[in-house]
Design brief:
Layout lengths: L5 E4 L3 E4 L2 H23 L8 H18 L4 E4 L2 E4 L2 E4 L2 E5 L3 E8 L5 E7 L6 E5 L2 H11 L8 E5 L10 H25 L6 H18 L2 E5 L3 E6 L2 E6 L3 E8 L8 E8 L4 E8 L6 H18 L17 H13 L12 H8 L6 H11 L5 H12 L4 H11 L4 H10 L17
Antiparallel strand pairs: 1-4, 2-3, 2-9, 4-5, 5-6, 7-8, 8-9, 10-11, 11-12, 12-13, 14-15, 15-16
Length: 430
């Protein structure tokens, strides 16, 4: 999808941290240093408070850094283009340093544009006038929901289904207890193997804990949501989602979560726990909700569905389909009764997240015929916004102008796969 050359607005507030607040966060470290000096000079008892002061300092400084209370704002003209983000005429964030850009609607009504930077750098926040302005900036950078895939890490799948979580704990607890009992009996029956049994027990406990803490990966694309956890994967097309609501588990405690719940048209509820209910960092809940809402808006506006039949496989074999697509790309399919399919119509299909998967892949193959670098780059941008792995791979293959055999294999993978009328299951379900 082509990006606007430049987006400009007269208002933009770059958010910086308050130096007085950061100085406050450093006071426990100063107190720890004073206690060290006092303990060395007078009483060793003063040294006992040093570890506590350091812990308080780390927690306080981390909180102040992330929450940024009493923040400072530098207002001025804001612009975005292919080079990056400009503020007051200065390039404050080059495009190649941006990992992604996300809209964060604060509870107080402000709209924050959060840029996550590469190389483990801290994010940069900019306050803008409204959602439309934020989306315009992302669109100019090629980072909005129609042009890129946003990736998130969620808690383990073992705690994703709230209704089954207590049973998961009981099953794992019972398994570990049974394993420990079996090893105890084995240790008495085979004393020479007794030193190995504690190692096996520790390995089992570690494996169980790893399953509990291993994060679930979520990709928000222009076509739907892709969830992956270990070897279990699932794709949910936007056409299958009836509504999305925030949720908070009742009660208090570290094992209670806040997040989003997807109500599917099939009647299923898919829970996406994001942060602990007691956490003061609720940013991710609002950010994820906004990103999915933006992606659904893009999906609803799709314009390529009406033209999709032109490039769908139908009753043809994969080889016949590929030959026909090559002909469409070369416009050799036109005759006295058939009008040529212009590239503009093919682009409307391939860039429409609402169009069937095989139609989007077919349009991409047709466009790749004798494509130049600009066409291939545009196809690569389309692929980067797709969450469905099979469709993304097919369009990437077209962008790379792979061999006919490779393209046929990629197209065959899409057989029966659709992002418009049903959710595709890949490798398992949730």
């Amino acid at each position: 999808m082509e990006t606007p050359s430049r987006f400009e607005t007269t208002f933009g507030a770059r958010i910086r941290r308050n130096p007085w607040a950061m100085a406050l966060g450093c006071t426990p470290f100063g107190a720890a240093l004073a206690a060290l000096v006092a303990g060395a000079a007078a009483s060793p008892l003063a040294l006992t408070v040093v570890p506590h002061l350091i812990i308080v300092g780390v927690v306080l400084l981390s909180y102040l850094w992330r929450k940024n209370p009493w923040r400072r704002e530098e207002t001025g003209a804001l612009a975005a283009d292919s080079q990056g983000v400009w503020h007051r005429g200065e390039l404050i964030l080059p495009k190649d340093e941006i990992q992604n850009g996300l809209v964060f609607p604060e509870p107080n009504g402000n709209t924050i544009l959060r840029f996550r930077r590469k190389k483990k750098s801290l994010p940069m926040d900019i306050r803008v006038a409204d959602r439309d302005q934020a989306r315009g900036i992302l669109r100019a950078l090629g980072l909005d929901a129609a042009q890129s895939t946003a990736k998130f890490r969620l808690p383990s799948r073992l705690i994703a289904d709230i209704s089954k979580r207590k049973w998961v704990g009981l099953v794992w607890g019972g398994f570990v207890a049974l394993f420990a009992a079996v090893m105890s009996i084995g240790a008495r029956a085979a004393p020479q193997l007794a030193p190995l049994f504690p190692i096996f027990l520790i390995a089992t406990v570690v494996a169980a804990m790893a399953l509990v803490v291993w994060p679930q990966r979520l990709e928000v694309g222009a076509d739907g949501l892709f969830l992956a956890w270990f070897r279990t994967k699932r794709f949910i097309g936007y056409g299958d989602i009836a509504r999305i609501d925030p949720f908070e588990e009742p009660g208090a405690g570290k094992n209670k979560f806040a997040g989003l719940v997807l109500y599917l048209k099939s009647g299923e509820a898919v829970y996406l726990p994001i942060v602990s209910k007691q956490s003061s960092f609720r940013d991710e809940v609002y950010i994820l909700h906004e990103r999915i809402s933006e992606a659904i808006d893009t999906w609803v506006r799709g314009e390529g569905v009406a033209h999709a039949a032109l490039v769908r496989r139908g009753e043809r074999t994969a080889a016949q389909w590929l030959t026909a697509l090559r002909g469409i790309g070369a416009q050799s399919n036109a005759d006295a009764r058939t009008a040529p399919i212009m590239p503009e119509r093919l682009w409307r299909i391939v860039e429409d997240p609402k169009a069937p998967a095989e139609a989007r892949a077919g349009a991409a193959v047709a466009l790749s015929h004798e494509a130049d670098e600009n066409v291939r780059a545009r196809l690569s941008n389309v692929a980067s916004a797709i969450a469905a792995p099979k469709l993304r791979f097919a369009i990437e293959s077209a962008a790379k102008n792979n061999s006919d055999a490779a393209l046929e294999a990629a197209l065959l993978e899409l057989e029966g796969d659709s992002t418009h009328d049903k959710a595709a299951r890949i490798g398992g379900g949730q």
